[in-house]
Queue: 3 jobs
Job 1
Amino acid sequence: MHPLLSKLETAHDLHDMTLDELDQLASEVRDVLCNLLTTRTAHFASNLGVVELCLALHSVFDFRRDRLIWDTGHQIYPHKLVTGRYRQFSSMRTKGGLMGYPNPNESDFDLFMTGHAGSSVSTMLGLKTGDDLQQDSGRRAVAVIGDGAFPSGIVFEAMNNLGGMKKNLLMVLNDNKMSICPRVGGIASYLDRLRTTPFYTGLKSEAVKVLNQVPLLGDPVERLLSQIKEGIKAGLHGGMLFEELGFRYIGPIDGHNIRLLRKYLRMVQDLSGPVLLHVVTEKGHGFEPAREDPVFFHTPPALQSLHKTPTDSDKPADKPFTHFASSAIHEVMSRDQRVTVITAAMCQGNKLEKVRDDFADRFFDTGICEAHGIAFAAGQAKTGLRPIAAIYSTFLQRAYDQIFQEVALQNLPVVFMLDRAGLTAPDGPTHHGLFDLGYLRVFPNMVVMAPGDALDLQPMVTFALQQETPCAIRYPKTAAPSVARRIAPVELGRSEVIRWGSDGVLLCFGSQLQECIRAAEDLQQEGLEIGVVNARFVKPIDHDMVKRAFTECGFVVTVEEAALMGGFGSAVLESASNSGLNTVQLRRLGIPDRYIEHGDRSELLSDLGLDAKGIAGACRSMLERVNIS
């Protein structure tokens, strides 16, 4: 079915292929990508867009020796297919299979496990300087970065450094007019203008060479001629911004024309100094539905389930935490004009489209610039607004300094909505939101919460917006159950007792509440009375509940979908220790001190002992320990 791809032993074999063979190979790669989407969710449109670019790069450079980094990394699939992983490709994003991002453990062609945007130029510059210092300057260096990631502050920090160092490095700007959603901002507008200008080859332009020969005759004639000269050059220079930063700008060129791509990649291969090659591609190229709707097809569900018809049996409990979070945000914005929303290129991921459409003047997308987004939120809060920063847990850590300096230190009422907290299943270690508790609860003034179920989210958002201090609410990318109970009001530092038991108690922080209830019900069949507490807060911790649990129950087990180090269990341990309680009866369940690979969420939770079976097993072992002691 894939005669060329199946026989490809190494990417170096592309050097010997004809243009017709490379075009056929591109078709085979697209066929494999479409086949994958019939079985599982995967990054799709972005990978369709870089097929020709990937083949051109590997047919010109030799990345067995040369250096290549794909920024953000979700467009790595064609690269994996031509670097020896075709036969494993059906295992993509399954437990034990290929990762959906670059992974050095899979192949020497993957230099970094990249999953966050913007770092490629910095790491590539580090590689290049390291090679040069070790007298290995023959290695060529290539960083491929998308236009969505390009406005990230770290990119311009790296370009500033690189332009001054004059290192030989090729930046390929993959311009498809998209991030996940359509990109925003001044850089986006600038790239739009570049795409409408005639092709420009930077300092190779003969017109510029002629202009550079104009003699300088002295002041004030010199100044006049210089101004005329620079004005003419500015008109010729499509990429003037980049050239002012010290780059040789070439482009824009068609990113789906392999012949043209190879021509210009060969042209820039041995140029000295930093070069920016502007390549225009189309997200979803080659698959019409993805081309027409690249937002939906960024990471769509398996194609076989696309046409599922909703039924009356679909219940609100089946909807994800994200749905309830976005609904809560929309509701508070409808009744409080002070509330704004700030997101970093994740409008769709946070399901904020209705918020954006209904409250356009109070919705702000900063692009993939989390640090700027949080400082921006701090400025709004200072004026009396109530900004909500809706940013994934794993991406919020990119703004760590701003959380500290601009928000917590100033004690400003910014509300952080941390979607994708916990395990993000097939996305893997770059996207698991496991460290937010450790990096947030250390800050004075910060309040940190997690809903136990869908019914907690609305009152938590309302509560957070009433505080005069920064608040964070974390929740996972999974279906949100609704636990039947008389719901206790959300009060600062107060937990909610679901059931009580003298044999032991489960203190649950966050999304595993239903699993804890199931575990307690299973243990009840064995004659054990196990309590379940919906902790709600990790900061401030409910000290009264901690004391009650340690004094009234035989054992205490904490449960959290977060790193144990510095997390909820640690907060309980600290509280118990400060109160002089005997902590031998405590066991903490959560994420151990290692990176968790990708896989189905239920598989990962089972492996980590965070499902009902694992939680019940931990209770049994604790009962044995307590009885022995």
Note: The two ends are 65 Å apart (CA to CA).
Job 2
Amino acid sequence: MKFSLAWLRDHLDGAVAAEEMARRLTSVGFNVEVREAQGEDEVWDVEVTTNRPDAMNHRGLAREAATAGCGTLRPFATQLAEGAVAIGELARLTVEDPEGCPRYCARVIRGVTVRPSPPWLAERLERCGIRAVNNVVDATNYVLLDVGQPLHAFDLARLAGPAIHVRRAHGGEQITTLDGIVRTLHGDDVVICDARRAVAIAGVMGGAESEIRPTTTDVLIESAYFDPLAVRRTVRRLGLKTEASHRFERGADRAMARTALDRVAALILELAGGEVAAGVLDSAPELPPARRIAFSLQRLSAFAGCPIPEEFVLRVLSALELEPQREGDTITCRVPSHRVDLELPEDLYEEVLRHWGYDAVPAVLPPSAGGPGLRLGSWPVTDRAREALLAAGVAEAITYAFVPAEWDAATSGSPLASRGGAVAVENPLSARMALLRRSLLGGLVDAAAANLRRGATRVRLGEVGRVFFATDSGVREEERLAVVLAGNTGAWDETRAVDFFDIKGLVEGVFGEFAVRDALWEPAATPLLAPGAGAVVRCGEGVVAVAGRLADEAAAALDAPPGVWVAEFDLGAASPSIAPVFRPLPRFPAVVADLTVRHSLDLSWGELVAAVRACAPPWLEDVAPVVRYRGEGVGRHEVKTTLRLTYRHEERSLTQEEVNAAHFALMKALAERLPVSFT
């Protein structure tokens, strides 16, 4: 925003040098970015933040300069001689929308002579980026830049009737604005009207039909306070920004509406002659009571981290026209109407500290009053889960707990995700964050797919996090571990596509870390997983995990390619603590024997191994798969599975004879227990 140095000095007594004033204004938050010489004057480009409309004018910035020690702010007074004719005989005012226009003031000046402005006025306006038009219009713009109050001048003779009405626009109503464009109004727009039509868009721009022309002799001057929200809505809808709307939508000074009106009337008399009608049309002459904010000097010093002298606090607040009153440790300030940004004690802290100097505040960390926070009771399990992922060569991912409805629908078919309803977010940031997740797989698959789209050939991602369910008693949370595998696996020279056994082996490795025993794998019938390529894992009566290839429909909903393998484990089934047990190295040798079992495809590996262990002697150490054969000599619905049995006694060496005897006894018992054969 552009300012004239000479104009700033008009408001100051004893102003300091330009270099020093620019430095001090910058130090208190009004960064003087550019200084450009214009004859004996300087034009400054000053950064004024949007929350400080009071400083978007020369007097407001001069007030800040005076507070920063750049002189003393001069009193603001206007001498205005009124004529004998009362304004009520020339114009009337009706405000039908006091919410959109809390205050509207107007004066009438008769007998003006419209001509070009004197050079001093035109030059000041042009230095600040406003084109000179004529002496009446330029006077309104001058007062705008001087004290920050937007004003508008109407040609009184061009108004239909002497009455001014402030109301909401009729839907579809049109007005030709000063820029010559016909604009269609909305029912939320506040407009200024005469007896027949709208003649100005409140707070934005006047109408072309009532503008000041060379033939104008009688002028009605408007000075008002419009609702910032109403002006902002109109500006955004019309795409029309003006110097007036820039102030109004940030918050103008309600008290300045009358003061600025007298100032512009006196300036027009000086520039254009004429006579001011006696009196003012004012819809709300009584101002609302000023807000008061109290704060503690001790808390201010504690907030700053260093002692702030009382004398300095009172001097700064007095220079800012906040009228501080001290009573003990408490200082109470009266907030003037031009400071729309002051609401809390912390706002007053900022006013004091920016003039004290942020560089004078010591850079010291505040003392910590408490100890470390308490961790949730589930942390031993979640910590071990993350360690299990790392041990399996899986990279940990962290995804959002918020998911779109499409992801929730795609994963809701999992037995682990159907334990309760979805929890809707009351104020989601976007549609992609509408629900709290019931499964970790949505975000994890999305992350894996993003890696694949960017050229990754091996994706091994895992996550440990919480899921959420809506229940009759409220929201329930559960801890989960999830894994996604995609692409290739194996050594660099022996790569192959990821398959079911990769995801199954990883899940069983996690089970080993959590002492999950007697886990039974069963074929899954869930829309989450592809038919014939998925399983659920049960411990007792409950499902503790799901694993398999993502179904094509679910993959499409998650925008993932085919061939993505997933698994999710309920950490609630994990043992909360596992004490490590030392096992000495075996002293006696093992005896290994292979056993080939012909069985139906319906018999699962878990059932087969459980039966073998139940029928074997106590010194059977391990059961491992060797090969599965389906082909010539094997029925269509059968398979031959070769098991490798490891026998070892803890106290002596086994003989081949007793191993053979035990082996044949195992085969006999197994044939009696299951529909299997050994041919």
Note: The chain has 18 helices and 35 strands.
Job 3
Amino acid sequence: MARSRNVWGIDIGKCGLKALRCSRSSDSEKLVADAFDYIEYPMLLTQPEADPGELVRDAVEEFLSRNDIVGDTIAVSVPGQAGLSKFIKLPPVEASKIPDIVTYEARQQIPFPLEQVIWSWQRLEGGIEESGFVIDAEIALFAMKRDQVAKAIEPFKDADIEIDILQLSPVSLANVVMFDQLPKPSEVDPDAPPPSIVLASMGVDSTDLVITNGLKIWQRTMPIGGSNFTRALVQGMRMTFPKAENLKRNAARADDPKKVFQTLRPVFNEFASELQRSLNYFTGQDRTAKIGQVLLVGNAAKLRGLSDFLAKQLQLEVHRLLEFKGLEGDLVLQTPAFRENQLAFATVYGLALQGLGVAGIRTNLLPSDVTRDRLIHAKKPWAVAAMLGLLVAALINFLGIYVAWSSFSESLFANAFTQIDSVVAKSSQIQSSLEQAQSERLGILETQQRFIRIKDRRFQTLELIRAIEAMTPRNEPEKTDEVLRDEMKEAEAALAAEEARAAPTTAALKPTIPISINYDELHIDSLDCQFFEDLSTWFEPIEEDWRSTIAAAKFESDNEEEQASMANPSDEDEAEQPNSEAGGESNEGMDDVEYEPEEEENEPQSPTGKGWVIQIVGHHFHNEDYHAPFEGRTYLRTTFIESLLGERGEIVTVAAGPMAGEKVLPKDIGIVFPAIIESNPIEDYWVSTAVDSVGDDGMGMGPSRRPSRGLDGGLAEDGLNLRKYRFVIQFVWKPKSPGVVELVPDDGNGNDY
């Protein structure tokens, strides 16, 4: 964070410490160099006998002794190989989603967990943004491991120098090129960008290579530097490292310059080859890129003949960067020490550009906790002053309260305290009474609401009984018992006459006796119910019975319609009648049919929750030969079961509620999931026609064929042998009143659920 208008750019290299202090000029396009410093170590940090920590510490102390940095912004660089630089081209994306994509890319590109690194990113100039979408955008991603960051700022921390910016050296060099050598990014045409400039910063052990045209940046660190030339002289001319270093710097004044350059030529070739390989890789990645010129910086670039050799090998313009176009200040720039080491000040110049806010890349690898601790430390004096002020105010307040308290006498307020206690007790009593009244009121309201909710449910049980009665098939006899007995006597007399005249025809005439009693009805023997907290416990054991009941009922309903249509065939039906008779099948064996009920919208396939299970035990006599095929279980399905399923239409009359008097389907009053639980075989059953049959059920019926008393009081076999079918049906009943939006059923114990 900037603290003044002056910025110190400091670069701790392996050869020496470089520092440059700059400020903004009246010309917004330039910087003013106010001061500089160059402190060369007694020996290179890479030499075996060197102590890097001590050498750097001494150089920093010497720098502080020469310069006043209090209140200035401090920007520090670290070598390029100490960090990671990635330039990533993004796909078309919303501008607001770029941070999320960058975080994802950081996890992919950085070979360490993000918790172990300090990383920063910035969107580069270029690309198109329209309607919130960005196309052809490119981001620059930089990262360093936390231990490398701590190692880089340790010398400054030991010297109590507060760092504001920590930047990689290649990024600082890229800022120099974009500010000093290229037009502003806003003035660059993305479709016709200027040729790229190559900046090679030659260090002791490596060379930072930066290529940019103002819109795109490419960076690489080459593993060759000034020490490679020194070691070539050590090996080729058999001398010590210090002597070889001195000879390298003064090669033109050597006793045999030709021999020196011949010794260095392999290193020249290696450096040129490595540089050419890097340029080829860059142009291979970006086919549209053009290389304009190559600029050399770093003290190793002062080696005589290096720039000419590279220009010849690369077939490009190669120059040393001997002038900073955006920097002014003759008091510094014209100093012999600065001019002699100007090539080494490119990195600190780029740091000053970033510190003053005019650089193209503004990322910062300084840990946020360092900045936070510094901010807290800066605010500590103000915090202490505020605490002292609060303490003084509290003390004054306490003194005032103490004076008031000391003047207090309890006897003066005894009556007031007594009245207060009385009022408090009375208030508590009233409050308690009020709470009790409110509780009673809420109970009354709850009871009232409950009665309102269940007012229409008082008819539900009767409604269920009436619904069962309405769905039970019956034909009421139109004749009295006396008339029926008279007809029976006439039928027996006619039968006896026929038997006397022609005995063989008697068996054939018996079925034609015109008896008016119609057995097309169901007899309900008992009706029972049981409440289930969870209907699934009832449904699971009888699910197969329910499925077979539903399947057969649907099949027999369709079959009944088909037989009805065959009974009154149309012209087309008569034309197709032979085929239908040939392919017709009985509905025998439908109990074994496996059937999945058709799923209607919002129709459950099993009952859930609480409810009642109604059981009906009964029988019917609709089982004679002339009733086939609708007899036994089939007759039960095609009458009562179809009514329960609602396939016979709206037959249930509503007793109360908004729809009172209207007819609805059984399911509208809560009748669902009917199933035939027990189906007994058809058995013979004797029906007596005698007036006072003995041992019968009061209707002249008995369980088996046996003689009964005749009309004259004697024993006779007067009666009919019928066929009886007994059954057990169960279905679910969840009481509800049609037309009522919300109804809470009762569980039978007075509790709503």
Note: Residues 64 and 265 are 41 Å apart (CA to CA).
